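ok so I'm stuck.
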Amino acid sequence: WRRPDLGGPDATWAGPSGLNLLTVSFHLPVVKSRPMSAFQRLLRWVPALVLMTAIFLLSALPASRIPTFGPYDVYFKKVGHAVGYGLLSVSYYYALPTRLPRFVRWWMALGLSFGFALTDEFHQSFVSGRTASVRDIAIDGLGAFLALLLAAGYSSSITFPSRAKTLPNSGPD
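replied:
not stuck anymore, here's the structure
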């Protein structure tokens, strides 16, 4: 198999005499979309707002109302922190304007997640039996960072060429 570029699915295999035995080509039609309305742009923030509300409500629970998970209690709760803030960071990335470059949206989503983690821990310090923890902020930030890395890697790994490319060893059929 020889691929002219690493991004596209075009491939060819030349036999011993140089004759093309197999050519694979896959192309999607170009779809032009309309700009989003203000309402559609606001709707993109719904997942982030739902997650922020859920995190706020869970951190407002007094220590006496939080369930324990036996010997796995610390691990379960810290993984919950990482997953929650990972989902929040991806929802921020989704909500931010697509006209911004990807790396700007990525850093903004990470910053918003980290900022929310700071304010959430501050809020938690006023709840009965709960304390603010720098370790929780670090775990929240790590979860957001890893989720954004996974999401960015996933979304940028899918590329399709816009039109068929002529391969150097392809000849008339």
